[in-house]
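Technical appendix A lists one of the benchmark inputs used to test multi-chain prediction within the project. The record comprises six sequence entries:
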Amino acid sequence: MVYLTRIEKFNAAHKLWVADWTEEENVAVFGRCANANWHGHNYALHVTVKGMPDPFTGFIMDAKKLGGIVKKEIIDHVDHRNLNLDVPFIPAGCQPTSENLVIYFWQQLFPHLPPEVMLHRLKLYETDSIYAEYFGE
Amino acid sequence: MVYLTRIEKFNAAHKLWVADWTEEENVAVFGRCANANWHGHNYALHVTVKGMPDPFTGFIMDAKKLGGIVKKEIIDHVDHRNLNLDVPFIPAGCQPTSENLVIYFWQQLFPHLPPEVMLHRLKLYETDSIYAEYFGE
Amino acid sequence: MVYLTRIEKFNAAHKLWVADWTEEENVAVFGRCANANWHGHNYALHVTVKGMPDPFTGFIMDAKKLGGIVKKEIIDHVDHRNLNLDVPFIPAGCQPTSENLVIYFWQQLFPHLPPEVMLHRLKLYETDSIYAEYFGE
Amino acid sequence: MVYLTRIEKFNAAHKLWVADWTEEENVAVFGRCANANWHGHNYALHVTVKGMPDPFTGFIMDAKKLGGIVKKEIIDHVDHRNLNLDVPFIPAGCQPTSENLVIYFWQQLFPHLPPEVMLHRLKLYETDSIYAEYFGE
Amino acid sequence: MVYLTRIEKFNAAHKLWVADWTEEENVAVFGRCANANWHGHNYALHVTVKGMPDPFTGFIMDAKKLGGIVKKEIIDHVDHRNLNLDVPFIPAGCQPTSENLVIYFWQQLFPHLPPEVMLHRLKLYETDSIYAEYFGE
Amino acid sequence: MVYLTRIEKFNAAHKLWVADWTEEENVAVFGRCANANWHGHNYALHVTVKGMPDPFTGFIMDAKKLGGIVKKEIIDHVDHRNLNLDVPFIPAGCQPTSENLVIYFWQQLFPHLPPEVMLHRLKLYETDSIYAEYFGE
């Protein structure tokens, strides 16, 4: 079993805000991340699949094809978008934290991978010093 | 003459949009950067000053003090903010491109540096593959 | 279950030296790392916790709060310090190798994390090309 | 149990090409990677071993000694070489994809590690955005 | 005057070899870089242009458009290619060192930039620890 | 004229301390950098030379030979050393700040470069976010 990882990047705006809370409560919990007019990040998404190398091609799957699926299913929906408002597969009112994003991205990507590989891990860098990971369980 | 650089980071939302243009014109020029609901970046700002090392301290200026001035005069105003709406020293209606930001940041920072150094260069990374530089002339 | 990682950095001096050995024996085993007058590193510590995202905040825990605990319990004791001489929670005479440091840091950090997360991994970069990891077992 | 990783780099040429296929078939599957006159990469190999820190040295094994073994058994055979033509331990006709390379490297390195550690993982970066991993099973 | 830099990457094979010299002479001068069957690199090209920000767009030129020109005029000719054999604008028999490549790339790119900017610098990373720069004079 | 840069790394201990000042004065000026038992860094030194590419080799000078000179004249004296105590070419009592180090390194390296190149710049990273540069004037 070999693991293959492809990294794709996107730039997006978001804020952390619970609609049922007052502004004071939101700022108390989320600090500057609750800024009303949004802020944003350069995100880097590591997509790891696992499988057996094909005896002819040496691929578990073509990394370029993997990149194409990730772009079509995830990046095209989030790049230069607002993660609170613009993304169909992020439920309205849910916080677009990195911890939640890796779960939404997993649900979005999982059905579109070819049968010869299994999705193993999503790792999302929000900044150089914070990242979240999800293994589907 | 020795050059000293301090790097400070911030996360902000912005969009590129000319108010006098139609949405079609804005999208034609700015592409995805014109997304109505904003997008954002992790910015890294390199501030370079030049001067002579002090014979006692070996500093041209204390890098921590330089970092403090950059934080107070620039980072605190732009971090977790919207560059189109929230920043007093970015003129309303001006595009917050990296090329313009290095000029606004220069004007903002210049008067606050101590006399023993000269501001030499501002370099602003917008993504891993795009950066702007300004030398004050 | 989602994994969240926060990276904190520190700069410290150390040397590798067994008090019961001669200088020749120390140099034979540790090479330049046994330099009598110390050497030092820029360390980067990756702290990974795991838990379930809170339905309101989307956090498994606030990454800023995690950073604050890591700074108070570890970084403040090792940053700009000598790892052989200055750190109360590194036993005298023990070698401050990265392999040992991740164990000492685990013991130091473990009791201070909130109940909603479990400490999953410590990863310590000593240089760009050497790092140690510990999972608590 | 502590995990220690040492990173070593090499520069090599390769192409992806199945001898039994026509040029059209090769290009259809491998795209630009099938370029007849080769292309190449700066590879970075992360070698992770696991073991217990020695009570005297604090090492699970000397990272410099680990680097020396990796250089002698792998890097010296692949650095500034052609991975399709020049490397004795890569079988003729096998594709030098990253997925296959981590398996060949594992087989090559495994017998040469000292008994106090176990080889845990090989991770090979082919570019900044693609890497393969192998855990020996 | 503001400087804007766009980074584009490519992967290529090459070797250093003077046709008029014996193999012994080539190896004596170029070492492992003279390996008959080639080796290769992941190159990163920094293209810096300078100009005045447009009062409407805030661009000195659209960074995406700059990237497109660099891709069309340079990257498409060198990516997944052999720099000694496959590239029309690298003269036969000339050494594809980074020092020469930045000159050939300058000559290739210069005529294709729009009049509102001037080409200021090309910087080419051959590995993480070696790069060449050219300013056109 | 082409510029060639070679990066070499070293790990060293140091502290900032003026012997004629009290501990209170030193801590007031240097903060944690005045820690009596030292601290340390992973330094990265960028050495830039300029010259004309040789028509046969394509080199302004062999980057490996440049690296060898930098290692012999600088790195071997500072790597795994104490910059206040162990380095012959750093004057006793002088502060080993990055600003001073680039000057001492310039004086040390300058006489040892071959006549076909000129030393253009030394750039020294002390941490990921602080670096000093010197151009010899």
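The helical segments of chain D are 23-30, 63-78, 98-109. The CA atoms of residues 98 and 114 of chain D lie 26 Å apart. Comparable benchmark entries are summarised in Table A2.
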